[in-house]
Amino acid sequence: MQHLLKDAGLWREAAYINGAWLTETPHGRCALHNPADGALLAELPRCREDETRRAIEAAHVALGPWRRTTAKVRGEILRRWYDLMVQHREDLATLITLEEGKPLAEARGEVDYAAGFMRWFSEEATRVRGDVIPSVKDTQRIVALREPIGVCAAITPWNFPAAMITRKAGPALAAGCTMVVKPASQTPLTALALAELAERAGVPAGVFSVITGNDTRAIGGELTSHPLVRKITFTGSTEVGRVLLAQAAQTVKKCSMELGGNAPFIVFDDADLDAAADGVMAAKFRNTGESCIGANRVLVQAGVYDALAARIVERVAKLRVGNGLEEGVNLGPLIDAGGVEKVEEHVADALAKGARLLHGGRRHALGGHFYEPTVLADATPAMRVASEETFGPVMPLFRFDTEDEAIAMANDTEFGLAAYLYSLDAARIWRCAARIESGMVGINCGLMSNEVAPFGGIKQSGLGREGSHLGIDEYVEVKYLCWDGLEAV
Ligand SMILES: NC(=O)C1=CN([C@@H]2O[C@H](COP(=O)(O)OP(=O)(O)OC[C@H]3O[C@@H](n4cnc5c(N)ncnc54)[C@H](OP(=O)(O)O)[C@@H]3O)[C@@H](O)[C@H]2O)C=CC1
Ligand SMILES: O=C(O)CCCC(=O)O
Q1: Which of 110, 153, 212, 413 could form a disulfide with 44 if both were Cys (CB 3.0 to 4.6 A apart)?
Q2: Ligand 1 interacting residues, C-beta cut-off 6 A
């Protein structure tokens, strides 16, 4: 598959530790398969505790020189990394499609999104300012410095193999931290191509390392327990987030957690229905529904329920399912057999409890990990689609009568990541946006991820924010200096 890349140097089947490519470990190799056709893509060295420890120690050694490098120079290096990502956009997109499955057009969009974090944080590097605070004594001066927290460990998911790394590495390196990344074992190739580009951009050895292999607990255990690691940043399921928080508590590490969601997409009677139908298509079917901010529950006011359902079905019927490398494909495969089974179970449960099938509802004729885009009407809170993240191309339509009912349904979940509101009544929008329990609210907008905005959740959807000017706060500590014995001025 290497032949599909214009620059074969971006295809790496090795871990990247302390600026060197590690092709062998004593623990053998693990196979990586294309989710679209099951073909063997690569064989990666299996890292365990030893290799992870070496990467952490290298990150510790690299920390001093990196944090002393001026913010301007760190920003320039990150800018070069951004430029290289843009230059190699097509190859990065191909790698993403090969290992994750998303259509090439979406993969290109992810590269732009991922590179955006590098550009944004290359600029933010020079804006990590401290404070001078009026003191309580005339002989004292009080200064608050913002210093890099130190060695960071990032554990990232497969659904956005590039963006979930740059959203973490960009701010960490900009702030002067070093980072060890454990990408999802299903999508290491994109992470390794990013490491190759980091090296070409001039990121020094040890500042950014990538661990490979599927000995997940061994690697995760080392990252979360090693005393030199001062920060854990994770994107993935709430279940694993809880485990990592508990492990990191033993050495009191700072943690950022981007966890699961159960996003409500609320459409009121006064919405622009065509805009709402377009918005929900983006919010649901982006990445074949495998996104934590994907619309999991579509709540529609009774007066427009049938009209909106008709518009949605018309659009869904035009979606083309297939290998993401093929032209014109809108939905790729799900990541693995487990993903397809979960979708099947959710649909079967909903149908057994009275949902009406408006479209799809079964595995796609292509077989493998392909599932038909599915629309279910008459969904109710008793169904699994109401309480669990489906993470697939299934859109359940719930019905509500009043605004209060919609808000109560929206908030009836332990998650609080994203929510969407469609209405043309500004007063209602302000009211509902205030009452919804979520970290992000899309208003007449189905796609709200970008590098300038603070991404993150409340409740059991996580801790901290990524992107925006706030994103860098996760990688700095405040140090307060109290200087006494000075002349009063
Ligand atoms: N919020 C989000 O963005 C995401 C949410 N999910 C949700 O989670 C469900 C399951 O997906 P899944 O991929 O299993 O998500 P996980 O949360 O299991 O995986 C995310 C990352 O965490 C790693 N990981 C898993 N267990 C541990 C551990 N004990 N210690 C350290 N690292 C660990 C994984 O490694 P490895 O790949 O080696 O297992 C991967 O790098 C999905 O169906 C979806 O509902 C999934 C992905 C992203
Ligand atoms: O599923 C996730 O956790 C990542 C969402 C991608 C994004 O929109 O930033």
Answers
A1: 212
A2: 155-159, 182, 184-186, 214, 216-217, 220, 235-237, 240, 243, 258-260, 292, 389, 391
Q: Taking the C-alpha atoms of 180, 184, 190 and 192 in order, what is their torsion angle to the nearest 10 degrees?
A: 40
Beta strands in 305-416 (DSSP E): 356-359, 374-379, 394-400, 415-416
Strands 229-235 and 208-210: unpaired
Residue with CA nearest ligand 2 atom 2: 292
76 is catalytic: no
Above 90 in pLDDT, residue 325? yes
The helix-helix angle for 216-225 and 238-249 (nearest 10°) equals: 40
Centroid of ligand 2 to alpha carbon of 294 (angstroms): 8
**pLDDT tens digits for range 185-243:** 999 999 999 999 999 999 999 999 999 999 999 999 999 999 999 999 999 999 999 99
Please work out whether the CB of residue 455 comes within 6 Å of at least one atom of ligand 2: yes
Q: Which atom of ligand 2 is nearest to the CA of 167?
A: 9
CA pair distance 385, 396, nearest whole angstrom: 7
Question: In ligand 2, which atom is closest to the CA atom of 163?
Answer: 9
Inter-CA distances, 152 with 105, 125, 184, 202, Å = 32, 17, 17, 19
Burial degree of 461 (CB within 10 A; 0-12, 13-18, 19+): buried
462-463 vs 40-45, strand pairing mode: unpaired
Cα–Cα dist 380/386, whole Å: 7
SS3 assignment, position 30: strand
Phi, then psi, of 146 in degrees rounded to 5: -115, 110
Report the nearest atom of ligand 2 relative to the CA of 292.
Answer: 1
Give distance in angstroms: CA of 344 to centre of ligand 1.
Answer: 20
- Amino acid letter at 288? T
Residues 356 and 378 sit within 8 Å (Cβ to Cβ): yes
Is any ligand 2 atom within 6 A of the Cβ of residue 172? no
Phi first, then psi: give them for residue 292, nearest 5 degrees. -70, -20
Of the candidates 124, 199, 258, 372, the residue annotated as catalytic is 258
How far is the centre of ligand 1, averaged over its atoms, from the C-alpha of 363 (Å)? 23
**Are β-strands 15-17 and 254-258 bridged in parallel, bridged antiparallel, or unpaired?**
unpaired
Q: What is the CA radius of gyration of the chain?
A: 23
Whether residue 212 contacts residue 45, with contact meaning beta carbons closer than 8 Å, is answered with yes
Q: Which amino acid residue places its CA nearest to atom 3 of ligand 2? A: 292
pLDDT single digits (tens) 37-74: 999 999 999 999 999 999 999 999 999 999 999 999 99
Query: Residue 489's pLDDT is what?
Result: 87
